[in-house]
Amino acid sequence: MASIADNAFEIERRLINLKFNTNMPAGAGVLGYDGDPNAVNPSNSPGEELIYYVAQGATFMQSSGNLWFKEALPNTWVILSGSGGTSNTSLAIETIPPGGVVTMHTLDLSSNQSFDFSSEIRMLNNISFSKYSAVTDGTGSSMIWNEYSFLGDIINVDIDISVDGTGSNCLFRITNNETNDVTARVKVAAYYEL
C-alpha cells in the first residue's frame, strides 16, 4: 500500500486539468466559469479563484471545446486548440510484418497544436482499438502531455504504440510483436490555430 509520502509525491507532480464543470473541493459545487481564463477575477467566486491561482502548466477546457494552457504566473493563459482553430484529418493503413516498426504519421509541431489518433489493429480474427491524444507546448518544440484510452479488443494483439515529440515533429509509431502480420489503420486529426 502506498504511503502518505508516496501519495503526496504523485499528487504534486500530476498535471492539473480543469473544466468549466470541474467539481470544487469541500462541496463548493462546480467550477462554474466558462469564459476566457485570462479574464477571471479571483474575488468573484471560488471557481475563478482556483483558475487564477492554479499552478503553471495546468489546462482549462471550456464547454465550447477551447483548451487553454497556463503559460505563466499569476494568470497568463494561451489557447491550445478549440473552436477558433481548424483541423485536418488523415488515415494511414499499413501491413506490418512480425518484428516490424512503422511510422504511421509524422506531424509538424510548429503548425499543429494538438492531435487525436484513433487506431484499429487487426491480426487474423483479432482486433484491438485505442485512442491517443497529444498536445504540444505551443512553441512547436515538444509535447506537454499524452493521453491514452484503450477502447477494447476482441482478442489482444501484441503491439507497441508510441507517440513521441522529436525535434519539431510528432511521430506515431507501431511495433508488431506478433508472429504474424498485423494491419494497422490509424486516423489522425491535427488541430491548429488560425
Keywords:
194 residues; mainly beta; 12 strands
Walk me through this protein's architecture.
The chain is mainly beta. The chain has two domains: 78 residues, no CATH class; 109 residues, Immunoglobulin-like (Sandwich), CATH 2.60.40.1680. The strands form three sheets. It has a five-stranded antiparallel beta sheet, with no helix packed on it. The longest helix is centred in the first third of the chain and has 10 residues. The radius of gyration is 20 Å and the shape is elongated.
Q: Brief description of this entry?
A:
The protein is mainly beta and 194 residues long. Helix content is 9%, strand content 51%.
Please, what is the average pLDDT? 77
Task: Classify the fold: give the CATH topology of the largest domain.
Answer: Immunoglobulin-like
Radius of gyration: 20 Å
**How do the SSEs run, as a string of H and E?**
HEHEEEEEEEEEEE
Write the topology of this structure.
Elements: H1 4-13, E1 17-19, H2 46-53, E2 59-61, E3 67-72, E4 76-81, E5 85-96, E6 101-108, E7 114-123, E8 126-136, E9 143-153, E10 159-166, E11 169-176, E12 182-193
